[in-house]
Design a protein that fits this description.
Elements (H helix, E strand, L loop, with lengths): L1 E5 L4 E5 L9 H15 L3 E5 L8 H16 L3 E5 L3 H10 L7 E2 L8
Parallel strand pairs: 2-3, 3-4, 4-5
Antiparallel strand pairs: 1-2
Length: 109
């Protein structure tokens, strides 16, 4: 996972670089929580451009991170999601609470 923090925007982009399933979610959750605690961002963007597979364990992990970020007064967005994973998000109802950004508006130089 690659983390990009933009201090002036208090924006943390998390580029997930692996499949999200029951074998990877715990390690991923710890890494994400560490980055959120470290930067206390106002906006967190999960970049799914390198994620080819996600199962229900990933949905649970995302919902947990959503709650943490909301509790800290921030917001969470999903970006660069492929059609298969977008379908999983639609079926699970996650898109009703976490917005999907079609084109990632990163200001990374």
């Amino acid at each position: 996972m690659e983390c990009i923090y933009v201090p002036k925007d208090k924006q943390l982009t998390l580029k997930i670089t692996e499949e999200i399933d029951e074998h990877t979610t715990e390690k991923l959750r710890r890494k994400i929580d560490n980055e959120i605690t470290r930067f206390l961002p106002r906006k967190v963007i999960f970049d799914f451009s390198n994620v080819s597979f996600m199962d229900s364990a990933g949905i649970g992990m995302l919902l947990g991170r959503y709650k943490v970020i909301k509790m800290l007064g921030g917001q969470l967005e999903l970006a660069n999601v492929n059609k298969q994973i977008e379908r999983i998000f639609e079926i699970s109802g996650i898109l009703k609470i976490i917005p999907l950004v079609k084109n990632n508006e990163e200001n990374v130089s």
